[in-house]
Fold this protein.
Amino acid sequence: HAKPGRHADGDGLHLLVKASGSRSWVYRFMLNGKARDVGLSRCPESIALLRRTGGDDLTLAQARDIAAIYRLKVKAGIDPLEERDLLVAERLAASQAAKAKAVTFRTAAEAYIAANEESWRNAKHRQQWRNTFATYVYPPIGDLSVADVTTSHVLQIIEPLWKAKPETASRVRGRIETVLDAAKARGYREGENPARWRGHIAQILPARSRLTRGHHKAMAYDALPDFLAKLRAKRAVAALALE
């Protein structure tokens, strides 16, 4: 058994033995005038090799093979440590993307409502958020990943309401936009908000029609004296103002 310490095998390969008896392989290399150590026992190449062979620790022959791979990388100007860190970062990003993909619009919406409803003093307003989502939004996109919601999905919800229920359509669109903004802030989606009104949905849907009562028909001239007599008989402020 090797004594605790660092034992050189040659060509940069070393066996590190701790007082506890644990052992690990290290490859020391020179790059840009600096000496650096990279652990081989748990590097990606070693993990893949041990999975194929069913072993728990690298043998001397296996450690030499892995060190030879790293030696070629260094000769090519590749820093094994930087390469490993980049690989770890890529795997972390992929893992986070997968987690974000698993967050549905329904989950994101319910999380937003739960986080903000205490600040909504009006109980009716709180219920309206849930009701409009349950009625108009969840059926088409509730189970869709919040990262995958597009303008087409938003229009699928809004367009059928736009002429028949313009006020409802406007509120639903605004609530979808808010949930998607919150989802982006939490890292669940990227890019522009497909429910944004200015410069986006406003360029697609026609302007909302405004309710108007129109004008009253003009009174006949010969009916005016009788109308004024009746108006003067009233004491209401509105009648006096009209006169």
